[in-house]
């Protein structure tokens, strides 16, 4: 896994022209002398405009990237762009807390000439804006989901509700009754939209289905999320849809204990538990490619990265192998019809975040 942190400038590296050393297991980066200046062009080029070669991308993340979910989706997306030659290199720094640590990491990458720089968490918004003001020719992006675009900063959304709508159909088909249990790290629009869409999908199979949503208060606390999910199960929940790694992992465990069904989040979680009926993958190479294209074109004011949906290949629903033959045929027919409509753009999933 690429890492970039604690990069040092040495006189020897300056004498050899700021060589860039990138390794997938440990990244050492020689900082080029003018890369951090406010008048430096994107990608370290000598003049404003497009960089001389493919851009190099950096990602900052709160926990560890290898999480089988949100973080790994970013790592995989960057690697796909690197393999395709769309970017010349990428570097990552994990376990970066919002606040001073995030600002140091973002600033360090900007000084090294990375562009675009991606802060892969909802909580990084303020940090990104503070650092970006000092590097107006570098594009920064964070996982906001509000369409927050100003100067050289943009956020990118998570239209996961399109996938959870389809998962709701499958969840209702895999159960004989019961309510939907939704959970998010916090009560934010994307999490509410995921829950509401799942519930709408379930209602296609069982029109009287109801549900409840809870905010766990943490994106990573699995035990806390499990306890919340068990409380929802006590109230009749049999289908669980999570927003965030911790909430989802906690729900998967609760669903297994209470003989319910769960949905995987931002990665195929079918191997975690027999309770996982389906998952959705987040194809972040599609999102990151738009940012890189802006950099390659010499832009400093980013375009809208707000919505890369299923019709554009931004996500895909994966049915767990163990459940492929267990979903009733009529439910699978409904799922396949809606899947075709959503991926073709013929049907727009309702975006309800309240």
Give structural notes.
The structure is a single chain. This protein is 35% helix and 17% strand. Helix 2 packs across helix 9 (284-296), helix 3 (100-111) crosses helix 4 and helix 5 runs antiparallel to helix 10. Strands 4-3-5-6-8-7 form a 6-stranded mixed sheet, with helices on both faces. Strands 10-9-11-12-13-14 form a 6-stranded mixed sheet, sandwiched between helices. The chain has a two-stranded antiparallel ribbon with strand order 1-2. Strand 5, helix 4 (125-132) and strand 6 form a beta-alpha-beta unit. The protein is built from 10 helices and 14 strands. It has 354 residues and is of the alpha/beta class.
Helix and strand topology:
Blueprint: H1 11-15, E1 20-21, E2 28-29, E3 56-60, H2 70-83, E4 89-93, H3 100-111, E5 117-119, H4 125-132, E6 140-142, E7 149-150, E8 153-155, H5 161-173, E9 179-184, H6 189-205, E10 211-215, H7 222-234, E11 237-243, H8 245-257, E12 261-264, E13 276-282, H9 284-296, E14 315-319, H10 329-344
Parallel strand pairs: 3-4, 3-5, 5-6, 6-8, 9-10, 9-11, 11-12, 12-13
Antiparallel strand pairs: 1-2, 7-8, 13-14
Radius of gyration: 21 Å
Number of extended strands: 14
> Which stretches are low in confidence, meaning pLDDT under 50 for 5 or more residues running?
1-47
Strand content: 15-25%
Largest sheet: spatial strand order: 4-3-5-6-8-7
Q: What overall form do the CA principal axes indicate? A: globular
Structural class, please? alpha/beta
Share of helix, binned: 25-40%
Q: How confident is the prediction overall: mean pLDDT?
A: 86
- Specify the number of helices: 10
């Amino acid at each position: 896994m690429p890492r970039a942190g604690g990069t040092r400038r040495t006189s020897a590296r300056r004498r050899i022209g700021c060589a860039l050393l990138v390794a997938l297991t440990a990244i050492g980066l020689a900082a080029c002398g003018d890369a951090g200046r406010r008048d430096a062009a994107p990608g370290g080029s000598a003049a404003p405009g497009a960089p001389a070669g493919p851009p190099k991308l950096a990602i900052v993340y709160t926990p560890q990237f290898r999480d089988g979910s949100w973080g790994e989706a970013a790592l995989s997306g960057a690697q796909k762009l690197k393999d395709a030659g769309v970017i010349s290199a990428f570097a990552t720094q994990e376990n970066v807390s919002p606040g001073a640590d995030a600002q140091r990491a973002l600033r360090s990458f900007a000084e090294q000439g990375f562009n675009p720089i991606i802060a892969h968490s909802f909580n990084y918004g303020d940090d990104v804006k503070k650092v970006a003001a000092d590097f107006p020719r570098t594009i920064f992006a964070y996982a906001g989901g509000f369409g927050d675009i100003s100067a050289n900063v943009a956020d990118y959304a998570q239209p996961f509700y399109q996938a959870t709508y389809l998962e709701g159909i499958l969840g209702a088909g895999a159960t004989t009754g019961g309510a939907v249990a939704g959970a998010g790290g916090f009560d934010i629009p994307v999490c509410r939209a995921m829950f509401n869409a799942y519930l709408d999908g379930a209602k296609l199979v069982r029109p009287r289905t109801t549900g409840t949503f809870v905010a766990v208060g943490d994106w990573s606390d699995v035990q806390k999320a499990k306890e919340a999910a068990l409380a929802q199960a006590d109230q009749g929940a049999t289908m669980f849809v999570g927003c965030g790694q911790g909430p989802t992992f906690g729900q998967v465990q609760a669903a297994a204990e209470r003989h319910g069904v769960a949905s995987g989040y931002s990665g195929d979680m079918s191997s975690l538990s027999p309770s996982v009926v389906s998952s959705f993958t987040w194809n972040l190479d599609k999102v990151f490619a738009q940012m890189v294209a802006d950099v390659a074109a010499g832009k400093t004011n980013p375009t809208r990265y707000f919505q890369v949906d299923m019709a554009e290949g931004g996500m895909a629903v994966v049915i767990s192998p163990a459940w492929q033959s267990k979903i009733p045929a009529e439910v699978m027919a409904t799922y396949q019809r809606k899947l075709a409509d959503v991926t073709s753009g013929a049907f727009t999933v309702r975006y309800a975040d309240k």
